[in-house]
Amino acid sequence: MEWDFQPAHRLSAALRAGEVTSAELTDEAIARIERHDKTINAICVPDFDRARAAARQADQALARGEDRPLLGIPVTVKESYDIAGLPTTWGMPPHRDHLPAEDAVQVSRLKAAGAVVLGKTNVPLGLQDIQSFNEIHGTTGNPWDRDRTSGGSSGGSAAALASGFGALSIGSDLAGSLRTPAHFCGVHAHKPTVGLVATRGMVPPPGPALPTELDLAVAGPMARTARDLTLLLDVMAGPDPLTLGMAYALTLPPARHERLRDFRVLVLDEHPLIPTGSAVRAGVDRVAAALVAGGARVERHSPLLPDLTEAATLYMQLLISGSVARFPIDSYEQLQIQAAGLSADDQSLSATRLRALVFSHRDWMEANHRRELHRHGWRRLFAEFDAVVCPITPTPAFPHDHAPDPLERRIDIDGAEYPYFDQFVWAGLATMPGLPATAVPTGLSPEGLPVGVQLIGPMYEDRTPLRLAELLEQEIGGFRIPN
């Protein structure tokens, strides 16, 4: 039997039943990587010797009757996570030799759950793009069309899953970095509620792995099925044992419903600041049709929805000001002059990003206060609805564009060009207030490219969009790249 594309829950059952060994799964995954990754370039740091050793240990544990959640399952890890003995560079050449001494907390949890780590997956420079390319490890292509991006910053992980390189992967999401690659590559991903998953050990090199709480950014699971997302999230979720974990244990609420016909869903396909391409709109419509066919209550409009323009503005302000704080920029004074020269009437997203580059602490506090008002608006909406379905980006995967200045790049939406970073507004809809969002494939575009949507759920009710994703997967069905 071919195991490379089997879901993790099926592999786990086969391992327990003795149908296959972890050593066999691992050897098969490694062989597939060695055959196909020369052209895809998803696995940037292989760790095959230690993977084979871990697989042998997993088989011994299975023989003893152990039953850990991921025991013997081959997985991959985004390059930005520390793994002791492997380089963590974030694609930044000055840190190509940075070797952490300890595993990130999420890598430790993977290993404790019995997973077999095959290696690390590629990322963009500093995780600052929705394409995955850097000077150290090169470019990751999309397995469906290698002239197109696999997404970013978890693009290597999505490409690995789509190619059958391991059953699961872990990534991170600040600007759609889990959801966009999943959408581009035809796999599943879950952006957890902010703060739900500890992130220690996912820090730009050479910084120390401190248990800090990140604003906007989260760590999360990626898989080929929705059910596997829940399996992996249960391993990842929970506070850092060095901080909140000293006093608190996690108990996530169950999904609000188990049957599709009980869900109340708001479906969106239009944004006031950027159009939705026809292929993505068709994907949203496929999900809406599946919901209606399953008996769910579906609405296309609600006065309870927070203002999308203000949400996008707040997201850009918080994203850019926070990113600058983590990655200091040159010519700060010149940027202040440029921002001051903007017309007060210029409320474009480009102007918003420039102003955010020179945000003061007072500016940030005001934006944060308005974020809390939006969070309260979402609470009221989720008293009426269980989930919101909407795009992740306006288009399927686009051709590689490595123009040195990202501000010069454009995104083509049905023949019209828009600023490259404006496509972040849909991802930011869930990120800005910290809501959970599950990316699910919906089918293929007329050009044969995957199209996905996101299911946004109530804060800390991650199991609700995850359960809805499982039910939709049953309605829509799955698909995979041709061998």
UniProtKB/TrEMBL annotation:
Pfam families with a match to the protein in the record: Amidase (PF01425)
PROSITE patterns: AMIDASES
GO CC field: endomembrane system
Domain of life of the native organism: Bacteria
Residues of the Amidase domain: 24-464
InterPro entries: Amidase_CS (IPR020556), Amidase_dom (IPR023631), AS_sf (IPR036928), FAAH2 (IPR052739)
Protein's name according to its UniProt entry: Amidase
